[in-house]
């Protein structure tokens, strides 16, 4: 039997991740990926000639067996396929690590007087994953804190708003819609301990808002421009209203004890209908609330994209996370 020829390359792990990203994005054509890369590079300030990448170059980046691979191109491809900032940085960092290992030969390891247990027990990829996990946990905790802080501010000042979903928006955009939903759920549970169990059903509102914000920016690309992001916040507000109105009318008799109750009373004088009064009030307050929350999240996510590091590498490009792609 003839021996098989090993045509694997050192970058096959990176390429496999890119292929997975492409499949999860719906298998866009290479021409479409080229167009998206060009758009995001131009949004970063490059002219068309400098931003343009050849279709064959992108196609080659998906071929196994490569002996070299450009980390910046890998990051741009991941971003064009809608991956989050941390994923883009991670796959590019992995590519840079492999390039560095190929350039610098490593000395043989000394023989240890212990049983052979295979490769290193803690690989570099595991270290990166642990670091990323801690970063995600920190982001989750800060997001919950932002929600609770906004909630307490509204109670203290008596604003006709809620401001208890700013952290939900941050988490949904920065680390994923379902993690944003988790932030919303935790916020409602902690809120129940502070102000009573009536807070718990509003977890459904938090979850709905998180999913629309997260998928809106990360999959539907509604964070690419300020006008599109504004529209996304309006959609979030309407979805949250649709979920919240039955809860408010059913649990609280139309009044939540917030500054928005004065608007509900005014609407009731006009409509003389509880459900219609609550819905009208909630549409108005939710629109203002979600636009404010969304743009607070935009500020936080952009700040995080500027300072985020991965594997000891700091991003050298100052591209806004909403100029070209989701950055987290």
Query: Fraction of residues in helices?
Result: 55-70%
Low-confidence stretches: 1-6, 104-131, 308-328
Mean pLDDT: 76
The DSSP helix count reads 13
Number of strands: 2
Give your account of this protein's structure:
The chain has 328 residues and is mainly alpha-helical. Helices cover 66% and strands 1% of the residues. It has 13 helices and 2 strands. The chain has helices at residues 12-24, 30-43, 48-51, 55-60, 71-80, 85-103, 124-157, 166-175, 177-195, 203-218, 226-251, 261-271, 274-307; strands spanning 309-310, 313-314. A two-stranded antiparallel ribbon has the order 1-2. α2 (30-43) packs across α5, α5 (71-80) runs antiparallel to α6 (85-103) and α9 runs antiparallel to α10 (203-218). The longest helix is centred in the middle third of the chain and has 34 residues, at 124-157.
Features:
328 residues; mainly alpha; 13 helices; 2 strands; disordered C terminus
State the gist of this model.
By secondary structure, this protein is an all-alpha fold. The chain contains 13 helices and two strands; from the N terminus they run H-H-H-H-H-H-H-H-H-H-H-H-H-E-E.
